[in-house]
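Incident log, structure service

09:12 report received: a user says their structure output differs between two submissions of the same chain.
09:20 pulled the input from the user's history:
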Amino acid sequence: MRVETKKYSQNAFIYLEGKFNLKEFYIVKSGKIKITKTNDITGVSEDFREDGFIFGIIQCITGVSDNETVQALTDCEILVIPKEKIEELYNEHPKIILKILSEYSEILRKLDKDLVKIDFFSSTDKREDRVFEIAQKYVSIKEYKKAASLLKSYSFEIKDNEKGLAKTNAILQKLPGVDIVDVIETDQLISYKTLQPNSVVFTEYELADNFFIIKSGKVKITKLKGDEETLLAILGEGDIFGEMAILNDKPRNATASVEEETTLMIVDKRGINKLPPSLFVKILFYLTRRIWMVQQQIICSNIYNAAGQIYYLLTSKLKLAGVDQKRDSEKSFTFNFPLRELYQMLDINPQKKAEELSDFLKDNNLEFFEDCIKIRKIGALYGKNSFYLTRG
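09:34 re-ran on a clean worker, output below:
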């Protein structure tokens, strides 16, 4: 595959804010660039990058404009990778795609931490101490299965450590329902498993040797935050998760669990080089979408009003779904999550924020159901979002 190189003179614009549907992404071959981002909530930010930096990939993959302008600070040579050539690029230069996946996994890992904000861990870097801190935190919030999943997984790591095993088993024996917690293990490169409702797939800080593709059902991704869990994502059929720990060879960044019967394809990391290029492209697709969505959740934390946070998040999800504000203004839309999960995504306590939520809950454009939220007119939802943004 021949990779096109474009030359930009000093101060030339590579692309401008508001550029929708980028058809390619870019790698700085030589020179320096400035990236300027604008947002109604967070204002203007600038970032300066040079050789080897990858940019434009989130807009390219997701199709969402990121209100981003990129300018050459010096004379630059920029590698241009068309979206439709990503699979071909992997065939011929797999290390480039794996580098992108690894770098963007780290970006998402950091964003997840920024979203949670609170790090309840002690200053120790000792793995054993961290494992028991997380397990005890899950016990304190009565998430016994998650505590048991982590401890059972950890017991396989320390099978020759009698003292560590005794401490682990002492905690496990006190946990209700621990006998039905099943740690997912397999010797096969690709296997399938059906999980029953309220099962744990893996827990934050477990070591990882596989990732997952959802064949049917729904998976919730959560992360500990103080004395509660923050809902990072709700994933459905076809979605991929657990790949971050594999790509970067680090412990799990978050916890995955199911609330309904769910069938998973389990891919062992030993077989990662045998997977088809199309799967790596799919991983990149889901990774960039999750990065963009977490960025929006973080922006929400800067909105003063709980209703304003909700309208901003919902319109962000519409953008990610490819909904056009003008074209689809009169259409309806259904979010496949209930109100309680929406609150979890934004750490909103509906009792404490009742007054702020009043306008949202009385909105005639919204219908709330046990498993979803329906929007009668997309344009009206965007209107509400604009109203709260103008109120500061």
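09:41 both user submissions now match this output. Likely a transient worker issue. Closing.
09:42 reviewer note: Residues 41 and 302 are 7 Å apart (CA to CA). The radius of gyration is 22 Å.
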